[in-house]
Amino acid sequence: MPNNRRGLFIILLLLLGLFLGLTAVRQTQLFKKKAALADTATLTFAPLSPTTYSPGNSFPVTVRLNTNTQSISGSDILTSFNADQLSLTGITINPTGDTNLNSTSATFAPVTSTGTFDLLRVINCANNGGSSGCPSGRGVAEFGFVRFNWGANAPTAAYSTNGSTVDVATFTFQVKSTAPAGTNPIKFVFTSLSSTTDSNVTAATTVEDILAAPTSQLNITISSTAPTPTPTLPPGGTFTLTAIEDTYVDSGSPSSNYGSSGVLGVDASPTTKISFLKFDLRNLSNTTITSAKLRLTVSQATNSDSTSTQSVKFISNSSWSESTLTYSNSTSYPLGTVLATNPGGTLGETKLIDITSSVSANRGNYYSVGLDQTDIDGLDIYSSEATCPTAIPSCRPALVISTSSTSFPPGDADHDGDVDLGDLGLWARDYGLSISPANFNSDSTVNGLDYLIWRTNFLPAPSPPTTPTPTTTGPTPTRTPTPTPTPSGPTPTPPPVGSVYRSHTNDSYWNVPMPANAPIDIHSSTYITDSQTSSENLDYLGLTAAPDALQDFGYPIYWATASDPTYNYNYTYIDPVTNNPVTVTIPYRIPLGAKPASGSDGALIVYDRGWNQVIEMWKAVYNSTSNSWSYASFKHYVLDSNGLAFGVTGYTTVLNFGHRGIPPPARAIRVDEVQAGAINHRLECFWWATGTNYANHYWPMSGDEGAKGGIVPEGIVARIKPSVNLSTKGLTPPALVIARALQTYGCTVGDNTGAGNRVQLELNKTAWQNLGLTFSALSSIPWSDYEFIQGGYDPVTGTIRQ
C-alpha cells in the first residue's frame, strides 16, 4: 500500500476509534440508569400451567428472586404488560419461610406519572415519555410496582438470598373480556434502591428504562375462544345458562387443581371438598329475573349419591379460575351467605335449587356460588367437563332463568319499578365499573352521567312552604296508633298502619336472634361486676326517656311521607376499588314541625319507607326562616339492606354510614313495637363508661369513643341469660316485651351515658305513661341474670367477625 494511502487509512482508523469511543461513552451514559435498574439479581417464575387463558380467566404469577452475591437494603419489582389484554388485580407478598424477608412493610403501589406511588396506574407510552421505549404494537403499557423494605426486621442491615431462590411475590392477572387473541409478554424488572432512588422512577424513566432494561419475561397466550355470552332474549323468556367455569378443591390434596375433572365433589370427611361454579350474567343487567334455579345432576358413578345436606353459598369474589384454584389458595374466595340448601340426591338425579333473589341482585356481573356440607356422606355432581350419559343429555351445571316482560323507568337499577334510594346505592356500589345495572346510558362506565339520570328521574317531593310555621306541639297526625303526647315532648308522626315494621333484611345481624349456645366472652364475669358496681349503683338496666324520668334525652321518631319537605345531604366516601373520593347527594325528607330532643344531644330519627331509608341527626337545629336543618353529624341507612355500615365486614351498600356502625333502628325502642307486643331486633345499650382494656371495639362497629373510664368495649352484646324465666320476674306487660327482646336478641354496647347503663326509648311521654312503663321497669332483673356474648360473634354465620 502506498504511504499516502497508508496514512489516510490510519487517519480514518483514528477517526473511527474516536467516533466509537464517543459513542461508547454516550451509550454508557444512556444506559447507565438501565444497568442500575437491572442490577445483578435474577428473577424467575414458579411453574405456570396452563399458559393459555380465555377472556375472564384469572391466573397468578409467582416471582422468584435470587440476589446471587448481592446484599440489598431495599428493592423494587416492577412489571409491565399489555393492558389491552390483561388487568393486574392484586399482589400478594410471599416470604416462603425466609425470616429475613420483612413482608410486613411490602406494599403494592404502581408508578404514577408524577413519580409518586398509587394503587394502580395505566401509563400510555406515547403520552408519557415518548414512544421510543414502547415495543412495536404495544399500545398501552400497564405497570405494577412492589416495594420491598428488606433489613428492617432482619438480623443484618441488608438482605441476601445467599445464593438460593425465594418466592417474593405473587401477581394476580385477569384476562379482559374484550382481550384480543395472541401472546402477551409479562415482563418483570428488579431494581435495588441502594443504586436507584425512587425519584428516578417516573413515567418517563419507566417507559424509556424499564421496558428497555434487561428483564425476566413470561409469555402467556390469550385464547380466541371467549366464554359463551349470556343470551339476550325477548322479555318474558326462559333459558338455560351453563357455567363458564367450575371446579372443586380438596383439603387432602391442598395443592392439586381439579379444573378438568368430570365431577365436582362436596364432602366434609375424611377430607373437605368444596365445589365452585361461575356464571356470566353480564348481558342480564337490564333484565327482570322472575326465577333462577341452580340445576345440578348427581353423577351415576358408584357412591356419588348422598343423604347429607349441602349448602349453596354466595361467593363475592369471582376472579378465581378453574385452571388454577386449589384448596390452598381458595381462602381468597371465601364462601359467604347461605342462599339455599340441597337435601342430597340419588344417582343420576337432577336437582333444581331456587336462588332467584341472589341471581337477580347480581345480574350484570360474573356470579359465583360454592357448595359445601358438614356431614360425612359426600356428593359428586357432574361438572362442565363431564361427558353426559345418553339418558341425561343436560347433566352439566346450569342456571335455569325466567325473565319478565315488564319495562322499567330510566334510573331504576334494581328493577323494582321505582327510581329510589336503592338505585342510588347500586350506582354508588358499581361506580367505575363497565358492566352494571346502574350504567343507565350504556356508555363505558358507571359515572356521573348515570347519577344525573337517576337524579332526574328520582321522584321529587312537593315543594314545602318557604317559611313553615309549626305548632308548639307538632303536626296533628291523621292516624293515631300512639296517643297524642303533651307539649312536654315533640309530636312524632305515626308509623304506617298494619303490622309492626322492622327495618333491614331478615338475615341481618340486627334481626337474627342470638342462639342459646352462643359463645360467652371470657371477660363476661368481669363485665358483669363492672355493671354491678359502677352503674350509678343501679343493679339493673334503666330506661332513658321513661315518663317518670327526664325528657331531655331519648329519640323523637318521625315517619316521612310524600308531602314532606325535601333536603339534601352531600355524602363523600372513598371508593374501595379506586381508592378515590366519590361524592353523592342524598335527598331526605323531614315532616314539618319535627323537633329534636331538647337535651344536649339534640337527636332526631326519621324513617322514610317510600324512599327506603332512615336518617338520624345529632345536635339537630331547624331554621324556620330558611327552612333548613343543621347538625353536628348525619347518619343514613338503607332500610332493605342488611344494616351493616360501609367498610364493616359483610356490608352490602356504601350508603349505610354513621354512629360507628349502629343503625338508627337499633338505637331506640319504639312505642308501636311495645304496643304490638314484640321487639324483633337487637337494641343498643348505652353504657355508663366504655373502655379499651381488652379491645378497642368489636364487629359490627367500625369505631369507638376510646377509653372513657370503664372496661366494657363497644360492639360487644349483653343479653339476659336464656335460662332466666322472665315470667317469674313480676314484670309489667311493656317491661316484659323489652325483656324478651333483651333475652332473644340482646343489646350491642355502642355509646356512653356517663350516668348508668341504659336503653333508650322513643321520646313520647304520654304514650309510655298510658302503657305504664317506668325508668326502673327492669329492676327485677339484676345484672347477675345477664351475660356477654363473645366479642365479634355473628349469629348469621356462627363465626367471630373481625
TrEMBL record:
Domain Carbohydrate-binding module family: 238-387
Listed Pfam families: CBM96
Alphabetized PROSITE patterns for the sequence: EF_HAND_1
Subcellular location: Secreted
Biased composition (Pro residues): 478-497
Gene3D superfamilies: 2.60.40.680, Dockerin domain
Keyword vocabulary terms for this entry: Secreted, Signal
Positions of the UniProt region annotated as Disordered: 460-498
GO CC, alphabetical: extracellular region
Any one GO BP annotation for this protein: polysaccharide catabolic process
Protein name: Carbohydrate-binding module family 96 domain-containing protein
Native source organism of the sequence: Candidatus Amesbacteria bacterium RIFCSPLOWO2_01_FULL_48_25
